């Protein structure tokens, strides 16, 4: 929305579109600003996209709003029973499997840009 707008958008305008409250949007905006993805200017209300949409990957956006370099899709139960054959072996098995899936997810996000998303939305119009 910020990328497609002709003028800077406020957190209230974005929140109305997303269907959430403006304070949550401001939290996300703060994370995106910290990573240099969006910017605001004194005297002008609202936010604009800093890099070109063609240069901004979905992985960069994901990492900014999740404050992590490696996407985490799955979470493992940390206390399985060692007395159970499944409990004793499930954590290392799933850890390896989940790491492989999360690596593929990261790679996929790195291959797609914000411009790709915008293009797909325009096709749906």
């Amino acid at each position: 929305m910020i990328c497609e707008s002709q003028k800077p958008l406020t957190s209230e305008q974005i929140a109305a579109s997303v269907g959430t409250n403006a304070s949550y949007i401001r939290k996300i905006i703060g994370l995106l600003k910290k990573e240099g993805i969006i910017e605001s200017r004194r005297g002008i209300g609202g936010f604009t996209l800093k890099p070109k949409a063609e240069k901004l990957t979905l992985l960069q956006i994901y990492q900014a709003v999740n404050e992590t370099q490696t996407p985490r899709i799955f979470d493992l139960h940390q206390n399985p029973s060692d007395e159970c054959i499944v409990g004793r072996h499930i954590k290392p098995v799933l850890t390896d499997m989940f790491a492989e899936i999360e690596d593929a997810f990261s790679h996929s996000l790195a291959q797609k840009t914000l411009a790709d998303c915008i293009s797909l939305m325009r096709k749906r119009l």
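The two ends are 15 Å apart (CA to CA). Strands lie at 38-41, 44-49.
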